[in-house]
């Protein structure tokens, strides 16, 4: 009899948890994303947990972190087909809420690393990239975001981006073909992107695995003039 009572209590508890009456009254819930591709060494971390090896098609909820090692890439997709390519040596945290099918708030927080992004334009919500020194608000935008200890750098391929420096509260708009750099001193610089920056922003996932190496050899020619030979390759 005691066993039957325990099973009955467990069943009722499960039904109450699944009941809409026990859902948040405003209908809001944590945003979710999915790891659709993993290249080499990628780890994920749930809140209050340690990092563990990531697996393909793993669900990511608000508060989850993704960490990539050298020559490693993680591709993340959201329900609206927005896509993030987390490049090597990066740590990114997913945040946000949805209500029904509507995305209310969506953020990616990064303290170091580089992300290539393709964000679908929504009717209301703006995708935000946050760091200790900056906030970038985007909608229908593609490009890359590089985060260092004291600088945030955005290279725009298409769309619009508003870059806010949290130290000085200054902000600037960027459009396709422009690069925006903001730092821990509160400065913001917006300029035309270099060809190298644009090429880097256009790289696909397969190219992310390759590491570009450069060697500069300086010496004198037969006339005594200083010459520099530059050797570049990918591995």
Brief overview:
With 235 residues, the chain is mainly β. The protein has one domain (20-209): Jelly Rolls (Sandwich). It is 12% helix and 55% strand.
How are the elements arranged and paired?
Layout: H1 2-18, E1 28-30, E2 32-39, E3 42-45, E4 52-53, E5 58-61, E6 65-68, E7 73-78, E8 83-86, E9 91-99, E10 102-119, E11 127-130, E12 134-147, E13 151-165, E14 171-175, E15 178-183, E16 188-192, H2 195-201, H3 205-208, E17 212-220, E18 226-234
Parallel strand pairs: 10-11
Antiparallel strand pairs: 1-9, 2-5, 2-7, 3-4, 3-6, 6-9, 7-8, 8-10, 9-10, 10-12, 11-12, 12-13, 13-14, 13-15, 15-16, 17-18
Shape: globular
* Radius of gyration from the alpha-carbon trace, in angstroms: 23 Å
* Annotated CATH topology: Jelly Rolls
Number of strands: 18
Judged by helices, strands and strand pairing, the structural class is: mainly beta
Give an account of the 3D structure.
The chain has three helices and 18 strands. It has helices spanning 2-18, 195-201, 205-208, and strands at 28-30, 32-39, 42-45, 52-53, 58-61, 65-68, 73-78, 83-86, 91-99, 102-119, 127-130, 134-147, 151-165, 171-175, 178-183, 188-192, 212-220, 226-234. The strands form two sheets. It has a 16-stranded mixed β-sheet that branches. Strands 17-18 form a two-stranded antiparallel ribbon. Strand 17 and strand 18 (226-234) form a beta hairpin. The chain is globular. The termini are far apart.
List its traits.
235 residues; mainly beta; 16-stranded mixed β-sheet; two-stranded antiparallel ribbon; 3 helices; 12% helix
């Amino acid at each position: 009899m005691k066993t039957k009572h325990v099973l009955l209590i467990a069943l009722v508890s499960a039904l109450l948890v699944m009941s809409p009456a026990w859902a948040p009254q405003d209908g809001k819930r944590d945003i979710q994303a999915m790891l659709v591709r993993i290249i080499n060494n990628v780890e994920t971390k749930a809140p209050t947990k340690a990092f563990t090896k990531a697996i393909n098609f793993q669900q990511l909820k608000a508060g989850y972190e993704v960490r990539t090692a050298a020559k490693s890439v993680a591709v993340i997709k959201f329900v609206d087909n927005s896509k993030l390519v987390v490049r090597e040596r990066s740590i990114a945290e997913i945040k946000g809420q949805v209500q029904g099918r509507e995305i209310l708030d969506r953020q990616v927080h990064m303290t170091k690393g580089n992300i290539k992004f393709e964000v679908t334009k929504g009717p209301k919500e703006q995708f935000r990239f946050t760091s200790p020194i900056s906030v970038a608000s985007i909608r229908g935008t593609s490009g890359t975001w590089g985060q260092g200890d004291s600088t945030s750098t955005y290279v725009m391929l298409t769309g619009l981006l508003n870059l806010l420096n949290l130290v000085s509260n200054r902000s600037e708009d960027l459009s396709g073909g422009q690069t925006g750099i903001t730092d821990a001193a509160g400065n913001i610089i917006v300029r035309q992107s270099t060809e190298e920056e644009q090429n880097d922003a256009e790289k696909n996932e397969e190219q992310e695995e390759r590491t570009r190496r450069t060697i500069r050899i300086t010496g004198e020619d037969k006339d005594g003039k200083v010459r520099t030979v530059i050797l570049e390759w990918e591995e």
